[in-house]
């Protein structure tokens, strides 16, 4: 597999949300609006790239029995860093995402890529893998957030497209996340088959 | 490439120790680096909320803040806004824990006589699309919705209870619990404001 494929596979072919179905907790929890989905996606993307990079560099030095704890410490460090940065420079978004930012630590997509890819590959492919997966995750979350925001309150990225009295409230609430995600996965599967 | 490290006790302890050490140092560095911007962002948010709810002022309300404890854990914060040393209003950071989903924090601005100038929701967990409408609902300017607005009303003269319970303010449609909680927050803020205002007046004489 060449480097380009390593990068692009995360976008559609192995999209973490629509195909691998990993990291569902923040996906369903924070995508009540497009901007939340995008913010969450980019934060996760940063963590994925950095943790993949560091883990691919040090994994040879880590004994197998402490592999998972070591990975978790590395991932948690980057999550805390991004949490500090967001609190300092995008306080509103940080407040919106709240508890879901620290929860990136236990997002299975991050640990999944560390274990399945970064620990077995060199630095450059690992960075590309992290970037591809992270962007795929961001795209999926932004898409889901846009759909829910549009159907729920008639807006996308805060821009009103129709009056919110016609909004279907359920799409902003938790059940709407499941419904919208289900339909999006169905559509993606249809496109992939075609 | 060097071979994989064996899982001996000493190797495991050493590796974990080094990783946690590096992480700890890195986190400490980032904490120091972002400490000031975070504090500045928090202050700016608070100051914006104060600016939004009281008339124009030229002092620094955060310097003259006074706090009043309500119970063991919660305190109200009072930010006196002054124009050329004359009190033009007080921003009160008040709260209620009777919300549909727990605490609601509100910054409400009182004019010196206790009339509400404006308010701003600081933090809440109410249902999106229902209770979350309180940010705009209670300051509607449409004359037909006058009974929903709390702006320019004085909790000492108007009954700050939702009309369903015999009060004078119309609740948010389909969010009566959030509305009652909002009224509770304002009333708490008003009661403490009046109580402490008289105290302050006496101490000035």
Number of H/I helices of chain A: 8
- The total beta strand count of chain A reads 2
Please list the strands of the largest sheet of chain A in the order they lie side by side: 1-2
Number of domains as seen in the coordinates of chain B? 1
Mean pLDDT of chain A, as a whole number?
A: 86
Main sheet summary of chain B = 5 strands, antiparallel
Key structural traits:
heterodimer; A: about 190 residues; mainly alpha; two-stranded antiparallel sheet; 8 helices; 2 strands; about 65% helix; B: about 200 residues; alpha+beta; five-stranded antiparallel β-sheet
What can you tell me about this protein's structure?
The complex is a heterodimer of chains A (194) and B (205). With 194 residues, chain A is mainly alpha-helical. Chain A has one domain (3-193). Chain A has helices at residues 3-8, 24-30, 34-58, 67-89, 91-97, 108-116, 123-153, 174-193; strands at residues 155-156, 159-160. A two-stranded antiparallel ribbon of chain A has the order 1-2. Chain A is globular, with a radius of gyration of 17 Å. The two termini of chain A are 24 Å apart. Chain B has 205 residues and is α+β, with helices and mostly antiparallel strands. Chain B is 38% helix and 21% strand. In chain B, a hairpin with a 2-residue loop joins strand 3 (86-99) and strand 4 (102-110). Chain B has one domain (52-204). Chain B is elongated, with a radius of gyration of 24 Å. Classes of the chains: A mainly alpha (194), B alpha+beta (205). The A-B interface holds A 32, 58, 60-66, 69-70, 73-74, 76-77, 80-81, 84-85, 87-89, 91, 95, 152-153, 164, 167, 169, 172-173 and B 1-8, 11-12, 15-16, 19-20, 23, 26-27, 30-31, 33-34, 37-38, 41-42, 45, 123, 127-130.
Fold topology:
The complex is a heterodimer of chains A (194) and B (205).
Chain A: H1 3-8, H2 24-30, H3 34-58, H4 67-89, H5 91-97, H6 108-116, H7 123-153, E1 155-156, E2 159-160, H8 174-193
Antiparallel strand pairs in A: 1-2
Helix pairs in contact in A: 3-4, 3-6, 3-7, 4-5, 4-6, 7-8
Chain B: H1 9-53, E1 66-69, E2 75-83, E3 86-99, E4 102-110, E5 116-123, H2 134-137, H3 176-204
Antiparallel strand pairs in B: 1-2, 2-3, 3-4, 4-5
């Amino acid at each position: 597999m060449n480097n380009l494929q390593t990068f692009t596979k995360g976008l559609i072919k192995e999209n973490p949300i629509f195909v691998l179905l990993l990291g569902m907790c923040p996906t369903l929890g924070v995508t009540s609006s497009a901007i939340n989905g995008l913010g969450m996606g980019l934060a996760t993307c940063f963590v994925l790239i950095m943790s993949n990079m560091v883990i691919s560099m040090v994994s040879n030095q880590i004994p197998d029995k402490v592999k998972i704890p070591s990975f978790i410490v590395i991932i948690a460090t980057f999550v805390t860093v991004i949490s500090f940065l967001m609190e300092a420079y995008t306080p509103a978004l940080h407040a919106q995402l709240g508890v879901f930012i620290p929860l990136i630590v236990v997002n299975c997509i991050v640990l999944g890529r560390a274990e399945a890819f970064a620990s077995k590959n060199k630095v450059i492919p690992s960075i590309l893998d992290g970037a591809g997966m992270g962007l795929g995750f961001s795209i999926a979350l932004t898409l889901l957030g846009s759909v829910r925001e549009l159907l729920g309150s008639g807006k996308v990225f805060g821009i009103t497209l129709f009056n919110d009295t016609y909004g279907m409230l359920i799409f902003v609430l938790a059940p709407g996340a499941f419904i919208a995600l289900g339909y999006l996965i169905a559509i993606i599967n249809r496109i992939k088959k075609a | 490439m060097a071979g994989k490290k064996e899982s001996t006790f000493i190797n495991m302890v050493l590796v974990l120790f080094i990783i946690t050490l590096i992480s700890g140092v890195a986190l400490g560095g980032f904490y120091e680096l972002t400490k000031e911007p975070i504090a500045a962002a928090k202050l700016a948010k608070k100051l914006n909320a104060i600016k939004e709810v009281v008339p124009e002022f030229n002092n620094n309300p955060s310097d003259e803040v006074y706090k009043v404890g309500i119970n063991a854990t919660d305190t109200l914060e009072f930010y006196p806004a002054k124009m050329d040393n004359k009190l033009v209003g007080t921003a009160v950071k008040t709260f209620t824990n009777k919300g549909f989903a727990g605490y609601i924090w509100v910054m409400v601005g009182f004019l010196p006589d206790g009339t509400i100038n404006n308010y701003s929701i600081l933090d809440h967990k109410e249902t999106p699309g229902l209770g979350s409408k309180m940010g705009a609902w209670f300051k509607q300017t449409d004359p037909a919705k006058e009974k929903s607005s709390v702006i320019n009303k004085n909790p000492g003269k108007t009954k700050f209870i939702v009309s369903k319970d015999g009060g004078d303010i119309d609740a948010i449609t389909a969010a009566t619990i959030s509305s009652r909680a909002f009224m509770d927050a304002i009333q708490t803020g008003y009661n403490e404001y009046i109580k402490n205002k008289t105290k302050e007046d006496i101490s000035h004489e």
